[in-house]
């Protein structure tokens, strides 16, 4: 294989990101000089739908001008719910646990199809979804409501439906995070989690959804930066660097024929241990196909150079590059075409994205997901002009590195005001709660009902003492879990508790509808609390 041909094939294995909503000199260099095969977008790249379409078509034109045989894969994490890169102008769709709460896998298919149509219309042909992690650890800091359920069979059913919906829209999918990130208490963006279960347990829980989706025709599988001692004998070797995980388990035992991708190799579980560049070589040696380096331009170039050096010095065999290249080309034949990418139909695209039909679908599913966790003869409230209501809602704190800081969300207070326009609204900061306690408790004494929004309550959260103080003076408190349903475990003195699984406005509107009797709470808890 000539050096030029080898360099181009190595480039095709890379998934890279860049800053900005337009092509930068850095990404242009990676396309023209290194032939990178895939681009990952984050919220830093996303503007209005028209801007996104302009960006994706510009990237594809650069690839065509650089002599690419097949178009770029352009991907992002559009899981929906708390992990969504696209906001402006796009439909707000419910995320995994909200879908799980509907107990209807067909909703996952329809949401997957609608999500895929909007992505495809904007030139995005690969979605890093669905999440197949079984969330059986309430203290998991990174998965939580990104999971459909704590039940492996339910995750399998919903994950398969979501995957099929996206595929039907012509969008490639990634099952993540293999072999399972659900039972961790560490965020792999920050450190290396360890899951110490025996193989039998992994086969009965973590692997069940992956096996179901692989049998149903999975495209790609994303490996997790998680160490599984039962699979990988070498200490502290994450799945992303493990031949045992890639070859013995995923390829041979589960029979997966598609392409494998790493999670981002700049995450601290890798960058703070083996290092991104060296880690990329080790991941390819182990059997990955795509290597994801999402952020830093010098690191991206350094990674390509490290892979090239490894081939030239015999550390990494050229046949390993060739095998991955061929798998990726097969997927590009299935999911990409120059016709779609070079001459996008802007008018048609803007009719699909944020369409009335998609908004109606999302609202229907949100209404079916809202769950009445507890109600002791309090709800529904009667809409009354004389009613004095105080809404206490959390300032929007971001739980994990993978979530975006978006400001497009309206509040729980806004949703309540649709029924009681004169309702008072106070925002509390959990970290400053003890300083605000006296003021908020005093305000709560003056109203008939208090509606308290929560995001994620933990064992040491000051919200627990705050609620215990509130219920002494006002028993008419309605909790609204705007994220984790586990909050009620710590706040079970409340007379009523509703869960929305995410803080998006359509979910909060549905919760307000339940509070005031305009909607029924149809959701079923996907986890035990």
UniProtKB/TrEMBL annotation:
Gene3D superfamilies: Glycoside hydrolase family 3 C-terminal domain, Glycoside hydrolase, family 3, N-terminal domain. The keyword Lipoprotein applies. Residues 6-329 form the Glycoside hydrolase family 3 N-terminal domain. SUPFAM superfamilies: (Trans)glycosidases (SSF51445), Beta-D-glucan exohydrolase, C-terminal domain (SSF52279). One of its GO terms (biological process) is carbohydrate metabolic process. One of its GO terms (molecular function) is hydrolase activity, hydrolyzing O-glycosyl compounds. Signal peptide: none annotated. InterPro entries: GH, Glyco_hydro_3_C_sf, Glyco_hydro_3_N, Glyco_hydro_3_N_sf, NagZ_Beta-hexosaminidase. Keywords: Glycosidase, Hydrolase, Lipoprotein. Coiled coil: none annotated. NCBIfam families: PRK05337.1. Belongs to the glycosyl hydrolase 3 family. This is Putative lipoprotein YbbD. It comes from Oceanobacillus oncorhynchi. The lineage of its organism: Bacteria, Bacillati, Bacillota, Bacilli, Bacillales. The gene is ybbD.
